[in-house]
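Trying the structure run again after the queue cleared.
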Amino acid sequence: MGRRLVFLAMAVCLMVGSAAAQADLVLGIAVSAGDDQAAARWQPLGQYLGARLGEVVQVRLLNPRELRRQAETGQLHLVISPATQAVFMRERLHGSVLATLDNGQGVWQGGVLVARRGSPLHTGKDLAGKKVAMLAADADGDDSLLLAYYLFNQGLEAGKDVQVLALAGGSQALVAAVQDGSADAAFLHTGAMGSLAREGKVHLDDFVIVDRRVSDESPLARSTSLHPQWCVTSLPTVGSSQAYLAQNALLEFRLGAPSSQPGAILRFAQPASLDSAVLLLKQLSLEPYGAVALSR
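Done. Tokens:
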């Protein structure tokens, strides 16, 4: 049907009429509220897949709840989402993970708890009764699950033993909250502090990482365990040959030089194990193993 791309970006996407009927492949992508850069970030991938597969590729940017609804009702063919959602797609909808995002820092990511140098916070247990700042845009997504899981393993509960502050702005706003004392610690992505330092926005010597750890899988310092980056999942609405071609196309995708911004789309790698995401969901009793994980 030609090498065309139908691209639509909105917080909650409900496609009806002829535009939806014309698409050969519908790619659903999880986005957070207020992510104004999502369309520009994902459009090159949609264009690339359309050209490589010789099909009409329609990109839908959806909040987590709408993404799941459309996946469950057979409206999507491919899904790009955090690892915990990929587990749901695999376990409940019989999807297959085709690839894992590699943003130039590898296929693994973690969370970093940053405190002021000289702070009494050294281990996770020291966070009891303290305030931890995180981005408001991440407060109802996978980052909140990662923080909740970390606290769970310290014998603490977010919102009960530890006050979580959802702040607007970027990583710099979180660091500023730690600097001015409105938060005892900030929860950031691995690599975020390094990015701020390279941009001259922070001095790393002014901060410490709570419960600091590194590993062979990811040399970037972090506080939490490692979890896969975002995953691409094919749903049963995709034929096996089409999924195979899509996977090969994804593994050959490249976009520019490595970015200093965590989460930048660069390339995809062979699927990383979802075992750590499965363990997180099981221990927190969240879907598909317990209560509903999505709050929107």
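The chain has two domains: 5-106+228-283, 111-209. Worth checking whether this holds up in the mutant runs.
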